[in-house]
Design goal:
heterodimer; A: alpha+beta; Multidrug efflux transporter AcrB transmembrane fold; Alpha-Beta Plaits; 2 domains; 4-stranded antiparallel β-sheet; two-stranded parallel sheet; 11 helices; 6 strands; B: alpha+beta; Gyrase A, domain 2; 3 domains; 15 helices; about 55% helix; about 20% strand
Amino acid sequence: MEVFKYNKPVVRFMANAKKVGIFSILLVSLSLGLLFTKGLNYGIDFAGGTVIQVKYQGDAPIQNVRELLRKNEIYKNASVTYFGSNEEIAIRTKNTSKDVDVDVSDEIRQILKGSGEFEIRGVDMVGPAVGDELRTQGLMAMLLSIIGILMYISFRFEWRFALASVMALMHDVTIALGALALFQIDVNLPILAAILTILGYSLNDTVIVFDRIREGIRTIKSSKLDEVIDESVTRTLSRTTLTSLTTFFVVLTLYLVGGEVLKGFSFTLLVGVVVGTYSSIFVASPILMWLNFSISEFREKEAAKAKREKEKEKMRAMYEQGTI
Amino acid sequence: MGKLNYRVVIFFFAFLFGVVFSIPTLTQSETGKKITLGLDLQGGLHMLLSVKTEVALESKIKSMGTSIKYTLEDEEIVYDYLKIKDGKVVFELLDKNDISKVDKLLLEDFKEYAVNKKELSYEIFLTPELSKKTEQYAIDQAVDTIRNRLNMFGLAEPTVAKQGKEKILVEVPGIKTAEDEQRIRALIAKAAHLQMMAVDEDRANRVYGMTEAEAKQFGDVILPDVAEEGTKYLLYSIPILDGSMLTDAQVGYEKDTQRPLINFSLNGQGAKIFADFTEKSVGKRMAVVLDNQVYTAPNIVQRIGGGQVQITGAFTAQEAHDVAIALRSGALLAPVQVEEKRSVGPSLGADSIKASSIALTLGFVMVFIFMMMYYGMAGVVANFALVANLFLILAVMSLFEATLTLPGMAGIVLTVGMAVDANVIINERIRELLHQGNSITKSIEQGYNNAFTAIWDANVTTLIAAVVLFAYGTGPIKGFSLTISIGILASMLTAILGTHGLYQWLLPKIDKNKLGFWFGIKPEKGAK
């Protein structure tokens, strides 16, 4: 089966680069706007607090639970929502307790007594100090991996490639964060993992397109960057689409059947896969163009490099022959 | 079939390695190295504790005060105002001539403490090094004590370890009910501070009208009874002996009532102190105090030798069992506090396993079918690599006895998607070359060459992100980055080297007239 024919015409992506660029800028500004107005909804991992998962036999009496909690001085601000099904609820509160012996879950169990047959299935409690620590660690992880990746791509390609790929990456991460803010999803440790996966995934895609452009610079006769980019992107189009589709479907199954705990995680990834695919085609490559990347310069550099290698080899050969 | 080449041989052994070493995990056999399920999958209690080290410092300063007092009195030095103020022991000498004597004593017996001196007044405090040492000791002692308690409790494989410099990580898998969890938490938190204290019989009948401050003036403390609400005892605040002289504690039962009690044995020194005290105090009461609650306060009828003592009181059998464990493992020098707690019931863990397994299987099957339909035999080759990849991940994790968490499962699901990417890139390259009219051999060799740099660079960048995540992440994140890292490395072996070997091996079979079957494409017209 072939969806993309081999002799498909080259798609003029770069001719529309400006329009697409404006669209991207709009999306990013919209996301930034959401982040600044609505803000991220930090879950307990980063903000501290307690989440208690309670499963009832039969439908959960959610109104009754809310009523019982409202009557309690300490837990009157707790929020109660359904969790995955009608039988299960999640109680979220800012309260944490340092006491090992009797903690929030024990108190809640006491409060809910008489509201029906229930089982406390899970308790997550993170103290505020730990939350801060986790947030710092998360940011550190993000920064360090970006720096590491920047260095690697600069070394393997050229600084403009590195800069363009990191800009595409920021674009993706910003939009993913914007989606999290829009739907007010609890940002917890698994979400951080998802964001970092997007980081890797987006780069993965961009690197593969850039690899083709690097190859195109050597093999395609044209010295016009936009033509080289168009042809390279067209050549990778089938791979980009296929991989994105398989990944998308895998993540989609995770989202649909992977359980409530992985919902936020897989949602973030879904957004990331879509945006990452888009940016590797429509964001990273135009940036390369706008950064005044010059093909002839790159070719000269490559040629100089090749010449140096050759000379070295010649010297070595001469040395081995004993002429030096 | 073609000649066996080194690539296909390596791939074959990698596959074999994967299958063999993942067998213990897949069959859950008794022997062999296995993957352990994380607490989020098998259920259990995870806690990050901190130690209130300031309490350890306080009691260190207090005991410093006691020994200074004892030494001064022993040397018959007259002093005034000996007290603890702002974490320092302060006192004033009354006689100038004692200064040199005190200085000499401080230099000899208390040389690890810092001294501030102004004429006749002395301030003695802990040096920063000693403070740090005391704090560290309190943490290390808490780790050991909690570990001992949990080991004695009899649950499978609890983990107690120091995390960082100040925190203690406690992980207890296999807890079945909320009641059990609470029992374990109570056991961890129990100070288990045992004291034998004499009742101040001269003032005992005035205890209900007395305030704490008044009691303190007489050198007494007021402590409540553990079972009878409202009952209080007036006790001399300096205990006869404490739990540090205890050698064993066991659960027993009262002869008549069959009520549980705790028998404990004292060491030689403790037994002697106890015997001497009981001999002197016949007719008076002695209280057994645990964590500032009086469990029993019987009349002393006669001298008790042998160092065997009992605590009776309102125990259930379970409580007696837990208290005995706490006593045997010793007291906590300083109380512990919860910084982070994650508790997963067994049913929630089972649900998570089920959900993520379904996702994994579904995702896998989908990718499998898709690859076969789209690429024909080339897709089958890729699927072989995918299966090998999965086994390799399991095998490597089993060998390291790594922990599989829910995010780790998600990592495996994701790796399936990403591992297939390498083969998509390779197959697209091969197709391209075939379309250009190259021979099959050349298309395959050239295709792998062309695809290699892209796959390599893409994998290295993802690996950089995963490794950083592993180094900086905690708990769930670590599991995720671990499976991703192993998955990427395994995919280099299976998806690149392995499939290449398979093609080379199959090469003589590949019919250039059946490109549709082998690579899923129709040959161009006029292809060579």
